[in-house]
Amino acid sequence: MRAPDTDLPINLVDVSFLARELVVAQDVSLTLGAGGPTILIGPNGAGKTTLLKLAMGLIQPTSGRITWGGRENAPPVRRSFVFQRPVMLRRSVAANIHYALSSANVPAAEHEMRTEELLALVGLTGFEDRPARKLSGGEQQRLALARALARDPEVLFLDEPTASLDPAATKAIEDIIRMVAARGIKVVMTTHDLAEAKRLAGEIVLMHRGRVIETGPAGEFFANPKSQDARRFIAGELLV
Predict the structure, then answer these.
(1) Which of 47, 150, 155, 181 has the fewest CB atoms within 10 Å of its CB?
(2) Any idea which fold 10-87+154-234 has?
């Protein structure tokens, strides 16, 4: 029997990306494998979001090579991406989920059941008929997570999912991320919040000026950073 396709590991080999001749990612070699969440940290403009988009397949590298489960040009059938400011469709919460399920080719007969399951997972049961654009910022982010999970992803990319949220909304999102990771979904996420990275990460990737400076298990990274840049960043100093 033929083994089912998997997107893991995602391998980036000497990947660079230029935007209007500006180097946004440079000579990045990184492996994203199964396991706990991989959290990308670094100062603003470090290239974290660009790296997420490259790993998702939303943009193509200027040079270098990316493979998903050993395959190149693999369609993102089992990969989902949640942007920092997700766009809500001008329809109800339930209709937003139905749209995502239809896009993932889930049979219409299963939409009601799957919508109920997804909204329960993100704590939005009872919100089915509310206009999605009238939800609070935290509620919209939870709905965006539910839409992303409608694709039954193997890998979930999150770009600063708790940015600008209050502590209660942040905790709600972090709880969902933990539940998702516990189900075996690989989470790859950016954050500017070191405390959040400590709470969630299985692995840390530190970026600066488009380069990967240091990677490693979260516990080791925070307890014993190997590079001077990592030590300075953890201490709250600016990287220049």
Answers:
(1) 181
(2) Rossmann fold (3.40.50)
